[in-house]
Fold this sequence. Notes:
Layout: E1 2-16, E2 20-22, E3 25-27, E4 31-33, H1 41-53, H2 59-62, H3 75-83, H4 86-89, E5 92-101, H5 111-122, E6 129-134, H6 140-143, E7 147-158
Parallel strand pairs: 5-6
Antiparallel strand pairs: 1-4, 1-7, 2-3, 5-7
Helix pairs in contact: 1-3
Amino acid sequence: xxxxxxxxxxxxxxxxxxxxxxxxxxxxxxxxxxxxxxxxxxxxxxxxxxxxxxxxxxxxxxxxxxxxxxxxxxxxxxxxxxxxxxxxxxxxxxxxxxxxxxxxxxxxxxxxxxxxxxxxxxxxxxxxxxxxxxxxxxxxxxxxxxxxxxxxxxxxxxxx
Length: 160
């Protein structure tokens, strides 16, 4: 077996007037993530982790925010496009470990839905998906509730 590990990260500003999308699901919130696409920082981090594990660049290289085709794009679609690429399809996701950092909204009530969504999108068991939420203890822009960040580590494998 051959293994690859990738790490992904994303951060977006929280703003009024946008829906909050994380992990492919809508989270009830008075604010959402500002972005060229739907702003789903968790799926962006997952996508970057997969691309990084395979040395295939990052989400911005694949779906530039300067390209109007991706304005308002559904991040589930962006992840799907990456997963369907021949260079990625040769690999299987073994597991992912994600951390979301935000003061609000509280994400623990949505943990199971986030895990289930990620498992479904990646075609893996929920036992292979970890989603944790943390605060920034009122420190800096995250702690003031101005932004949300997401981290993801992925392990990929393929038979030799």
